[in-house]
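Narrative of accomplishments. A recurring question from our advisory board has been how the design workflow behaves on a single, concrete structure rather than in aggregate. To address it, we present the structure tokens for one chain from the evaluation set, followed by the sequence designed for it. No filtering or post-editing was applied between the two.
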């Protein structure tokens, strides 16, 4: 990871305790859901990387704001190097609340099927013929977009052709790129060494992600009950793991036969406290 704004010189930034090489598949996309110009990148990244000994070190979480900051500075460094932007404008954009840059790394793949699904999404075509229709009355091209194709946009045929052709890559431009463990050079090296790149020695030397206790403090403040205190023995409970996969959560809820209501009264302790406050107003 590098940063090049300071003096227009690229400097290496160490963001991990170990020098590891991840596997990255990068896809360049220039279009949005309306066939509009919306440049962005998709990455399929390994949750960790290998060291010089070939041992794989797992990384349990990514710092999206920090990654966004690095990516933003890299883009501006490139634009400054090409003299396509000046430093005054860069500093002004960096002071905006929304700079236009964003990183989202919450999507996880747990198996091969999930990885293939994400990969197909990354290399999806510019448009879907199923969403395309012709309004013969108005002589307009109609394109459906959004969730469940619930929104539409109409345009004349010249606008439609212009939108589609503007996303055709230049001759020789590579839209799918492979880095690190997925690069051809690395895979060729592994074949020469007769090593199996799919079965590295995995070392989990980083603590798993544990959510902050802010949520527990808020529940304690509102309902006057500590959610981390066991209701049976009164002991303090600790968080063993934090589950984000909705499929696993649904299985646990179904197995425990749990039901939830949209509105429920506060715990008895909070009710007593609220009643005492109401009585004190009339004393």
């Amino acid at each position: 990871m590098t940063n090049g704004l300071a003096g227009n010189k690229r400097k290496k930034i160490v963001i991990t305790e170990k020098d590891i090489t991840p596997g990255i598949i990068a896809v360049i996309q220039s279009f949005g859901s309306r066939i509009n110009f919306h440049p962005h990148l998709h990455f399929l990244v390994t949750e960790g990387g290998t060291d010089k000994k070939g041992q794989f070190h797992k990384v349990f979480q990514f710092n999206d704001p920090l990654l966004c900051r690095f990516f933003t500075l890299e883009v501006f460094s490139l634009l400054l190097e090409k003299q396509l932007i000046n430093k005054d404008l860069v500093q002004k954009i960096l002071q905006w609340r929304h700079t236009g840059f964003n990183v989202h790394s919450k999507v996880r793949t747990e198996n091969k099927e999930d990885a293939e699904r994400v990969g197909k999404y990354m290399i999806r075509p510019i448009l879907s013929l199923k969403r395309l229709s012709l309004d013969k009355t108005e002589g307009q091209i109609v394109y459906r977009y959004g969730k469940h194709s619930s929104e539409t946009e109409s345009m004349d045929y010249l606008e439609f052709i212009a939108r589609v052709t503007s996303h055709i890559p230049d001759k020789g431009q590579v839209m799918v790129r492979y880095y690190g463990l997925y690069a051809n050079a690395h895979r060729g090296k592994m074949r020469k060494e007769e090593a199996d790149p799919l079965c590295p020695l995995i070392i989990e030397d980083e603590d798993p992600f544990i959510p902050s206790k802010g949520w527990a403090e808020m529940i304690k403040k509102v309902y006057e009950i500590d959610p981390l205190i066991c209701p049976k023995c009164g002991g303090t409970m600790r968080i063993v793991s934090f589950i984000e996969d909705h499929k696993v959560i649904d299985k646990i809820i179904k197995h425990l036969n749990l039901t939830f209501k949209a509105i429920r009264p506060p715990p008895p302790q909070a009710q007593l406290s609220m009643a005492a406050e109401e009585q004190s107003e009339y004393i």
